[in-house]
Amino acid sequence: MTDTIIFAIPKGRILDEALPLMQAAGIEPAADFFNDDSRALMFATNDPLVSIIRVRAFDVATFVAHGAAHIGIVGSDVIDEFDYSELYAPVDLGIGKCRISVAVPEGTQDRKSDGHLRVATKYPALTRRHFESKGVQAECIKLNGAMELAPLLGLSGRIVDLVSTGRTLKENGLVETDILAQVSARLIVNRAAYKMTDGRIAEMVERFRQLAMKSSKGAASHVAA
Ligand SMILES: Nc1ncnc2c1ncn2[C@@H]1O[C@H](COP(=O)(O)OP(=O)(O)OP(=O)(O)O)[C@@H](O)[C@H]1O
Ligand SMILES: O=P(O)(O)OC[C@H]1O[C@H](OP(=O)(O)OP(=O)(O)O)[C@H](O)[C@@H]1O
């Protein structure tokens, strides 16, 4: 039986929305988690049997898929890109909402392709799958950020990237031509760990499920009002 549950959370923009959810689920990081001067990467919590690791978004999925962490929070964009069979994503947390889209320079959206495209992206697997489903071969150039620069500087004709408000595309002269998927953050669990922790992970998942249900009902009543 696994004693300490390792909970992986991403460093980036999901963190601010994830922390209140974790606190509502009864997981409070120790004070050094909030100390910007600290170089620690693993943190205790109010529960002596739960520790937190703070890693890059893509690495949350890798740690959990390999069982090095047992549970985590990550965007569905990352889950879809890796497609790890060991990952179980039982709860849509309703945070980190955006979409993953194709974008091209303004004015080129009607240009026909000759069946071969060059695409700059952080998501090569998702991108290849998307274009293959349309019978188009996509040559992917992997970037880790600032994808919007690629068409501007002639690195690629198009990009596949996350879009939320659309401001980044607009300010870099790009327009969205296709949506690959809607994205939100999910609770992810390692399938083997789920069974090995004496029901403690299942219980944790249930707490997050209840919170997600409550907040989606809240959002629905807000819209209805
Ligand atoms: N504009 C956005 N609006 C809402 N959610 C977003 C947006 N951009 C990214 N996300 C979500 O947040 C996750 C982490 O994105 P973020 O931009 O913080 O990471 P990053 O800085 O690109 O990651 P890293 O530096 O670890 O490579 C994404 O995987 C996605 O699920
Ligand atoms: O539609 P918007 O609201 O403008 O959001 C989209 C931007 O947000 C993300 O980048 P992020 O700010 O995380 O920086 P990154 O390029 O370093 O990933 C994404 O990669 C886009 O660039």
Model description:
This protein has 2 domains: 5-96 and 184-224, Periplasmic binding protein-like II (D-Maltodextrin-Binding Protein, domain 2); 98-182, D-Maltodextrin-Binding Protein, domain 2, CATH 3.40.190.10. It has 8 helices and 11 strands. It has helices spanning 14-24, 57-65, 76-82, 124-132, 149-152, 167-171, 191-196, 200-224, and strands at 5-10, 42-44, 50-55, 71-75, 87-92, 98-105, 116-121, 137-142, 158-163, 174-183, 185-190. Strands 2-3-1-4-11-5 form a 6-stranded mixed β-sheet, with helices on both faces. The site of 1-O-pyrophosphono-5-O-phosphono-alpha-D-ribofuranose (PRP) has 11 residues, from β9 and α6.
Task: Outline the secondary-structure elements.
Blueprint: E1 5-10, H1 14-24, E2 42-44, E3 50-55, H2 57-65, E4 71-75, H3 76-82, E5 87-92, E6 98-105, E7 116-121, H4 124-132, E8 137-142, H5 149-152, E9 158-163, H6 167-171, E10 174-183, E11 185-190, H7 191-196, H8 200-224
Parallel strand pairs: 1-3, 1-4, 7-8, 7-9
Antiparallel strand pairs: 2-3, 4-11, 5-11, 6-9, 6-10
Adenosine-5'-triphosphate binds next to helix 3.
